[in-house]
Write a structure and sequence with these properties.
Blueprint: H1 4-18, H2 24-86, H3 90-98, H4 107-139
């Protein structure tokens, strides 16, 4: 009899542990809520994708336009430098070529600029050598 209350408490405890309280309607409600949220979010996601694609297209077009304008400006400066070299204005041509320093040049444009710089350097050296020769001639009494 002494053990009867202890056995009764253990029996009730074990009976309580074996009872499974499952609520299938809560799981179904959670599943429905998830499905509803996903269905609601899909149009928003699709709209965001469309907007991102539109922004990407606009950025690409803007970049292409800027590249075309930059290329036109580069070619304009190269043509100006060529004209100045033809007019024997080598210092001015060199200044124009300096403006091309920070710009992106195509391979053909880089070669053209290098050729123009070489022409300018040769012309300046020849001009300096010619000027030095006439000065020496004047000192020696060659020309009066």
């Amino acid at each position: 009899m002494k053990y009867f209350p202890i056995i009764a408490v253990l029996a009730l405890a074990l009976a309580g542990c074996s009872k499974q309280d499952s609520n299938p309607s809560a799981a179904e409600d959670a599943k429905k809520a998830t499905t509803t949220a996903a269905d609601t979010a899909m149009p928003t996601v699709d709209a965001a994708k469309a907007e991102a694609a539109s922004i990407a297209d606009t950025a690409k077009a803007t970049g292409e336009k800027a590249a075309a304008e930059s290329s036109g400006k580069v070619q304009e400066l190269i043509d100006k430098a060529k004209s100045l070299v033809a007019d024997n204005k080598f210092q001015d041509a060199s200044g124009v070529l300096q403006q091309l320093g920070g710009m992106n040049l195509s391979d053909a444009q880089q070669k053209l600029v290098a050729d123009l710089k070489e022409q300018i350097q040769k012309a300046l050296v020849n001009k300096a050598a010619g000027g030095a020769g006439s000065s020496v001639g004047n000192l020696l009494g060659g020309k009066k």
